[in-house]
Amino acid sequence: MAETTTPVHLLTGFLGSGKTTLLSWLVRSPAFADTAVIINEFGDVGLDHALMGKADEDDVVMLDSGCLCCASNNSLQETLESLYYRRLRGELPPFARVVVETSGLADPAPLINSLYADASVARHYRLAGVVTTVDVQHGLATLDEFEAAATQLAVADLVILTKTDELEPQAADAVAQRLAERLPQVPLLRAAHGELPDPSAFFGAAPEHHLPAVRGLAPAQPAGRLAHVLRYGIASHVMRVDAPVSWAQYAAWVRGMQRAAGDRLLRVKGILPIAGDVPHVVHGVRHLFSPPRPHEGAAPGELLGVIVVIARDLDAEECEALMQPLRPPCP
């Protein structure tokens, strides 16, 4: 029997967006019991007070909630492998999931690649979703000014609007509406005073659960009137594959995406119907596409066949042309 992989949630957001304040509260919630939290900017992170008691030879502390906090200067691959084997040897309490807080300036794509493309990591872990925090006061201006912030938002499976207690409800509603226009298929939560109404909602960001349901293999359409963050040429194109595809078709599609789009691909995600097989979840970031894995859990329903391509400087016509290998062969 294949080993069950541990879900990993990436928490990203630009500098000052409130992600560390939120995380400092979340790790003390019962919902975060059995969670390992990896922090990659230990020097100035708001969890210092929780980690001050760590011994020099140990980079992991256990909070009263049952959450494990890990501060590491190693790569994500090395840290995840270390946590896995230390759990296996009984050196760490069992944990059921991992949350990785990224740097405020980080491009999430390399971390997504690490989870999908690194065989040693993908054997034990899987991406469960990307959570992006946006500051209600300065977030929209930050998205216009900094490409890193725009990228962090574009790849989100869940958006958390932070600091909503600092604006009047009507003003916060207006910001939420703007974000909903940019990412109409992505759930949005609001945090006030660094807290969510329901901490467990943080874990409801599975990528394949939030794919838009669209009809037909039509030309790619931007997902929303503003098509994500247009200033940087970032757009989300939604496609649907209604007929089952062969593995040869899938391989041809991946080769075409790699050659023609390559570094412009911020993220590709979807659930493909495979001829003679179960539906498979597909993921890609830039040139790297992970091996498709069988879809777990409930039947995908209307999400079956939906492919979302989030890319920079890739127009609808080019994206539609790149989908040709997944079309039914001409009679």
UniProtKB/TrEMBL annotation:
It catalyses: GTP + H2O = GDP + phosphate + H(+). GO terms for cellular component: cytoplasm. Residues 234-327 form the CobW C-terminal domain. SMART domains: CobW_C. Keywords: Chaperone, Hydrolase, Nucleotide-binding. GO terms for molecular function: hydrolase activity; nucleotide binding. It comes from the Bacteria. Zinc chaperone that directly transfers zinc cofactor to target proteins, thereby activating them. Zinc is transferred from the CXCC motif in the GTPase domain to the zinc binding site in target proteins in a process requiring GTP hydrolysis. Belongs to the SIMIBI class G3E GTPase family. ZNG1 subfamily. PANTHER family: COBW DOMAIN-CONTAINING PROTEIN, COBW-RELATED. This is GTP-binding protein. It comes from Verticiella sediminum.
